[in-house]
Design goal:
The complex is a heterotrimer of chains A (about 350), B (about 500) and C (about 350). Chain B is an all-alpha fold. Chain B is about 75% helix and about 0% strand. Chain C has about 350 residues and is of the alpha+beta class. In chain C, the strands form four sheets. A six-stranded mixed sheet of chain C has the order 6-7-8-3-9-10, with helices on both faces. In chain C, strands 11, 12, 13, 14, 20 and 21 form a six-stranded antiparallel sheet that branches. Chain C has a five-stranded antiparallel sheet with strand order 15-19-16-17-18, with no helix packed on it. The chains are: A alpha/beta (about 350), B mainly alpha (about 500), C alpha+beta (about 350).
Chain lengths: ~350, ~500, ~350
């Protein structure tokens, strides 16, 4: 699935796509993505904590890497990102170390683990292959995801949707959300950082009265499409994937402006020891092949420069200015969610 | 004669191991702020409400079916009994999984039949699923109580001037009450321990919240809630120890001349229950299999399940033998046996939390298969002890005495008399533990080694990711495992009946 | 064959057998009888080797067992037949009987002899109680024990079977020429099957002797009561007879020399009734028993006696009668008890 043909096609697409300003800005001072063909073969044992592969797409990537590197002995622990972060923190406190690498779908989980001081800095040589806006010391961004407001156009006019996330608490719209989901919790953390504790509490209480909970954000998007709720809060790719399977699904994307509602979060990898194999594995995730695949199949925003963006991505994204490492402070968010009985 | 039996040592070890999780939980929760806030109260309330409603539902379904299958002239009665007992062997998470997928807008029922159904979730959904998979406890224990009642007693009551309904009410019901109570307490115990059903139905019970806390940086809070849950379990166990079911051999079992209307109503109820608890899940898993095939499934999951379960079965039997033996020797042994029974009351998620923490303190064990197998052994040891004991009870002292008076050495007596008599029990014990461990979810979720996914954890992963269709193969595999468990359970019961009748 | 000298068996602090001595001749059957908990089963289990003696010794042929020297059960050639039969539930009748036999011929012989041929391949739990007992006996005998111990072998069978099997077992033992100790709590069984019988109470052997001797001349009031209906009448000892309020009775050998006042053991068939308006008693009740009739008689001097008469005899309740000793044989005499009971008070 990740072959040379794909690579060529992606490269060809690069010049044709009209990038939004955010994505366009990333093209400065960066080196184009590596090809998997140029990387050293992976040999030996590698233990990976994988924060929930999205519907098997991450599994496909793992399978492709394993196929290419038959001498790689990969053992993978799959669980929700937050659970694995919790595990890593508990392990760090107990002085136990089992994993070489933590691959998480959510920046806050990565930040929480990094805060324990167990991460190894991302080697500069690898960091060069990440878009400059997403280069961090403690972990390497792999793919971006955008907070969006999926809505049902048969129930609601796009104009009726506030462009300020804080305004949703004052509407009488029926809202779907997935409070137990890591991406949602990061979104609330961003709101806490940007708006403050008190306003966030007020917002949670306000939305709760008109909200319906779902287990995951795919569920939220599906509920929107069914008309069970008017709109929801979810990462962008759930809507894009649903539309791919069902082009006539009753769901469109709306965005808020300069607030937590349009946060750009990132999945990423955190190295837990100096095992060169772990670093090389990370390099594979930043190859053109993997990044293109993530963009094409998972509709995620590639973090390697020069890789084509997924189709259907909203334009004119105006994310808040927020350092993703600030999302690590999850504990007060959980306390807040519990206090307001949202969780 | 006063020598301390050698079997006390392993039995005491097993007892200590069974008590260890509780000690670990107490130790863990010491740091946690005791939060008796509204939230904690709400969780407790949800847990108790789910338990009570499930018990009520199980009684409402189990008792009428018990009366009809015991006393009425029903066509294919034995088949009905077997089929109606079957949901007991199916782990409730398969049911919850199927109901979650089947009902509600966009659910399988709407997709396939175009029928709009309400979503199965919350207290109502969890109660429905739990009831469908626990009522057989009430059915079986009530049937046993009803069967032990001699029809002559009812006839005697009628010659003394009671009408048939009055006789049923005044003679049969008081006798069945203990059976119903015993079954209800098992229902309560099972409901308190169940993790996946409330989790899938999004009802915030203790088990679900323990998992949420485990996922959300709150191991100490998870421990605290585990202890609160254990307190509820202890209450149920206390009542359970007070319920005595009298068993006597009936001369003749009562036959009730039921009208066709009543019979039809009973069969309708039975049919609906079977349809919902057995047919619906299998149909949905089957539909997924047809639609999605075997994508994503690796045989390694089944092999992992079987491997861990095999180790657990071996471990449990090796520990069960001295425990069962010690229990037959003296009161200290019986005390040890009692202690091992604790594992049965410790919910899997609680066992997982405790051993996870233990593993973090003893890194040698952390994320090892050993720790996972230990969790299985501690949880399912009572099953093994029960099965081994029921067979060691067959080896009365006199049999060994008889063999030796005929000239057999102790070794020969063991080999030729005790062993052949215990062996079926050992095999049954191993099989029971194996099948339970194959299907275990919550402890496996927490304790599995990295890279070690089982059928149950893969199914859970599929659920969490929202790709339900990929659960077809593991779910059907678990249904098959459950079927084997059911056959074993029924044949075990038949064997017991034969023995007590002999 | 078997010699038990001063045997004591302790269970913790409780003594089950106290200072018991007993010998068993070749081809002899001794029954041990006594109430539940008297220690009779403990004697058997000690001889079988399932319990070790705390004092005393047991000799079986050339073997010697005492508190220090044990011989495991399998080395003793002592067969044991259990009350619950202890058949191996996983083995057929034939396999049970031939359990340790290399040559199965003796097993076949005993299966034939005890009428089990039709059940040769049956499993134990399909057999009736009587059949199980026969299998247990066949199994023990087929293994050619030097000595057979039977622990209440008929206790779990119903009455009709008991009487029949009692004789079958005795015949079989005699045919095999195997000496046996047969433990029972049923005095009728003990009296009828034993060449000799021993009566145990509270761990002690109260008396051992031939059944009719034990019955007629019990060594203690306990034995007297245990073996049948017994009443004790106060009497005055003469030279040839003992004199009581109900007449005289002959006395035998071994009469207590000293006391002139004695208690005389009378059993219901040692007494006779004659209708008489100026008799010494009145009929309280009567019970028809087929060949005999048992009367409850109240003496005018107080106290009740039981009298057994021919079944043709019929006296109405309340009838005045004269009750007399009619025994032609010597009656057993006992020293009066310290706190003497009123004359003729019945002893159940």
């Amino acid at each position: 699935m990740i072959d040379r043909r794909t690579l060529l096609k992606s490269a060809a697409a690069l010049g044709l796509l009209g990038p939004t300003h955010l994505w366009a800005a990333s093209n400065r001072q960066s080196i184009a993505a590596e090809s998997a063909d140029d990387l050293p073969p992976l040999v030996g044992k590698l233990s990976v904590y994988l924060g929930r592969g999205e519907g098997g797409l991450y599994d496909d990537i793992v399978a492709a890497i394993e196929k290419r590197n038959p001498e790689l002995e990969l053992s993978i622990r799959r669980a929700p990102s937050a659970a694995l972060a919790n595990t890593l923190v508990a392990e760090a406190k107990a002085g136990v170390s089992r994993a070489d690498l933590f691959w998480s779908i959510d920046a806050s989980s990565l930040g929480a683990v990094a805060a324990e001081g167990v991460s190894r800095p991302v080697p500069a040589a690898i960091r060069r292959h990440i878009k400059p806006d997403f280069r961090y010391e403690a972990w390497a961004a792999i793919s971006g995801r955008l907070r969006t407001v999926p809505y049902n156009p048969t129930r609601l006019d796009a104009a009726a949707i506030p462009d300020d996330i804080m305004a949703f608490a004052d509407t009488d719209l029926k809202i779907g959300w997935a409070p137990a989901y890591g991406a949602f919790q990061s979104f609330v953390t961003a709101m806490r950082v940007l708006e403050g504790e008190a306003r966030t509490r007020q917002w949670l209480r306000g939305v709760k009265t008109q909200a319906r909970s779902y287990a995951g954000e795919l569920g939220v998007v599906m509920a929107v499409a069914r008309g069970e709720v008017d709109l929801g809060f979810a990462n962008h790719y759930y809507t894009l994937r649903l539309k791919q399977g069902k082009p006539d699904a009753n769901v469109d994307l709306a965005l808020t402006r300069n607030d937590a509602g349009s946060l750009v979060n990132s999945s990423g990898v955190l190295l837990l020891n100096d095992n060169p194999l772990a670093a090389n594995f990370l390099r594979y995730l930043l190859t053109d092949e993997v990044q293109s695949y993530l963009a094409r199949e998972a509709y995620e925003i590639p973090m390697a420069p020069g890789v084509a963006l997924p189709q259907g991505l909203p334009e004119r994204v105006q994310p808040p200015s927020l350092d993703l490492t600030q999302l690590a402070d999850l504990k007060p968010t959980l306390d807040l969610l519990r206090e307001t009985r949202v969780l | 004669m006063t020598r301390t039996p050698l079997s006390y040592l392993p039995a005491a070890l097993a007892a200590a191991a069974a008590l260890a999780p509780v000690a670990v939980l107490v130790w863990m929760s010491v740091g946690a702020d005791l939060l008796i806030d509204g939230r904690a109260f709400e969780i407790a309330l949800n847990t108790v409400a789910l338990t009570l409603l499930t018990v009520a539902g199980a009684v409402l379904i189990g008792v009428p079916l018990a009366v009809v299958t015991t006393y009425a002239d029903l066509a294919f009665r034995r088949v009905w009994v077997a089929v109606l007992a079957a949901p007991l062997a199916v782990p409730s998470y398969l049911g919850a999984f199927a109901f979650f997928a089947a009902f509600g807008p966009g659910g399988e029922i709407e997709t396939v039949a175009g029928l709009a159904t309400p979503r199965a979730q919350g207290l109502a959904g969890a109660t429905l699923v739990m009831t469908l998979y626990t009522y057989p406890f009430v059915l079986i224990s009530t049937r046993a109580a009803l069967q032990s009642l001699d029809a002559n007693v009812v006839d005697a009551a009628r010659t003394l001037g009671l009408s048939l309904p009055a006789a049923l009410l005044r003679i049969v019901l008081p006798r069945a009450a203990n059976g119903i109570a015993a079954g209800s307490l098992l229902v309560a115990l099972y409901t308190l321990s169940d993790f996946a059903t409330p989790a899938i139905m999004q009802l915030d019970t203790f088990t679900r919240m323990i998992y949420v806390e485990y996922n959300a940086f709150g191991l100490d809070r998870a421990a605290l809630m585990s202890l609160q849950l254990l307190a509820l379990v202890v209450i149920v166990l206390f009542f359970e120890s007070r319920v005595r079911v009298r068993r006597e051999r009936p001369g003749r079992i009562l036959r009730l001349p039921l009208g066709n209307g009543v019979k039809a109503a009973a069969l309708l109820l039975a049919g609906l229950v079977v349809l919902a608890a057995l047919v619906l899940p299998v149909a949905i898993f089957g539909a997924w299999l047809v639609r999605e095939g075997v994508v994503g499934f690796e045989p390694a999951y089944a092999l992992n399940s079987a491997y861990a379960a095999l180790l657990a079965a071996a471990g449990a039997v090796i520990l069960a033998l001295p425990v069962a033996y010690a229990a037959s020797v003296g009161w200290i042994g019986r005390l040890c046996e009692r202690a091992t029974y604790l594992g049965f009351g410790i919910p899997g998620i609680v066992m997982g939390t405790a051993l996870l923490y233990l593993g973090l303190r003893l890194p040698l064990l952390y994320q090892t298969l050993t720790l996972l197998v230990l969790a299985y052994v501690l949880r399912f040891l009572p099953l093994a002890v029960g099965a081994v004991r029921s067979s060691t009870e067959r080896v009365e002292n006199n049999l060994v005495g008889a063999a030796r008076s005929l000239g057999a050495t102790p070794g020969e007596a063991f080999r030729r008399v005790s062993l052949p008599l215990i062996l079926p029990g050992i095999v049954a014990a191993a099989a029971l533990v194996f099948l339970e461990a194959m299907r275990e979810l919550p402890a496996t979720l927490l304790l599995r080694p990295t890279g070690f996914d089982t059928l149950a954890t893969y199914l859970w992963r599929v659920y969490e990711a929202g790709y339900l269709g990929r659960g077809a193969v593991p779910a059907l595999a678990l249904v098959v495992v459950s079927g084997v468990a059911l056959v074993l359970m029924l044949s075990g019961e038949a064997r017991r009946r034969r023995l007590t009748a002999g | 064959m078997l010699e038990i000298n001063n045997l004591c068996v302790q269970y913790g602090d409780a003594a089950a057998v106290r200072d018991l001595s007993l010998t068993l001749g070749d081809n002899e059957i001794v029954t041990l009888v006594g109430p539940t908990g008297c220690g009779k089963t403990s004697v058997l289990r000690t001889v079988a080797g399932l319990i070790q003696p705390s004092a005393g010794e047991i000799r079986i042929g050339k073997l010697r067992i005492d508190s220090k020297r044990n011989v495991p059960p399998e080395k003793r050639r002592v067969g044991l037949v259990f009350q619950d039969f202890a058949l191996f539930p996983h083995l057929s009748v034939a396999d049970n009987v031939a359990f340790r036999l290399k040559d199965r011929a003796p097993a076949e012989r005993w299966i034939e002899q005890l009428g089990l041929a039709a059940h040769r391949h049956a499993m134990p739990d399909t057999l009736s109680g009587g059949q199980k007992q026969r299998v247990a006996l066949a199994r023990a005998l087929a293994h050619a024990p030097a000595l057979l111990l039977l622990d209440e072998p008929l206790a779990s069978l119903d009455a009709a079977l008991k009487a029949q099997l009692r004789w079958e077992i005795r015949q079989a033992l005699k045919a095999a020429g195997v000496p046996a100790i047969w433990v029972t709590h049923d005095q009728t069984e003990a009296l009828s099957v034993g060449d000799r019988m021993g009566i145990m109470c509270d761990g002690r052997l109260e008396q051992i002797g031939e059944p009719d001797a034990c019955f007629r001349q019990p060594a203690s009031r306990f034995v007297a009561r245990f073996l049948g209906d017994a009443a004790f009448l106060p009497g005055e000892l003469g030279h040839t007879h003992v004199h009581t309020a109900l007449g005289d009775a002959p006395i035998g050998d071994g009469v207590p020399a000293n006391p002139a006042r004695v208690d005389v053991l009378v059993r219901p068939d040692d007494l006779s009734l004659t209708p008489s308006t100026n008799g010494n008693s009145r009929i309280e009740w009567s019970r028809y028993e087929g060949e005999t009739r048992l009367y409850g008689v109240r003496l005018d001097t107080g106290g009740e006696l039981r009298v057994r008469t021919n079944h043709e005899h019929h006296l109405a309740d309340g009838a005045a009668v004269d009750t007399r000793i009619c025994a032609g044989h010597p009656l057993a005499l006992f020293a009066p008890e310290p706190a003497a009971r009123p004359a003729g008070e019945p002893i159940a």
